[in-house]
Amino acid sequence: MNVREATAADVPALDVIRRQAIEAAFTGEYDRAVFADLVASPDDRLPEWVADPAWVVLVVESEVTAVGYGAVNTETGELGALYTAPDHEGSGCGSTLLEQLERRACEAGRDRLRAATPRTAVGFFERHGFERGETVERDGDVRRVRVAKPLTPD
What we know:
Elements: E1 2-5, H1 11-26, H2 32-40, H3 45-51, E2 55-61, E3 66-73, E4 78-84, H4 93-107, E5 112-118, H5 122-127, E6 131-137, E7 143-150
């Protein structure tokens, strides 16, 4: 597994990963009408994040292609995205990305990493030391849970 910083040329492929991950995670959890717009619409924030020096966007690749990505705002400690292609779930891609994003946020002086994650991903974050907070509504009817983790320098 190779991890590198994303470039503007990566955005279309990363958006495909995001769409596939949302569809896989939300099918069976929500009625399709609830998340259809998320799958159908590109994430307009991604190109902005790649271009903004406050954001670190990392891509994890297999030998062949990108299989996941994550983004963290190093000025605020907010995790904006963490997606793994469904065919690579459970292979360590998400964990590797999260570790790298935590390291980058810590290096930038952040003492806490925060995210608003879909309910379907809360267990992943809890296994990685995040604590569950309040449930919030975001992206239409998709419920998200606030999670946070203190960061400590190595």
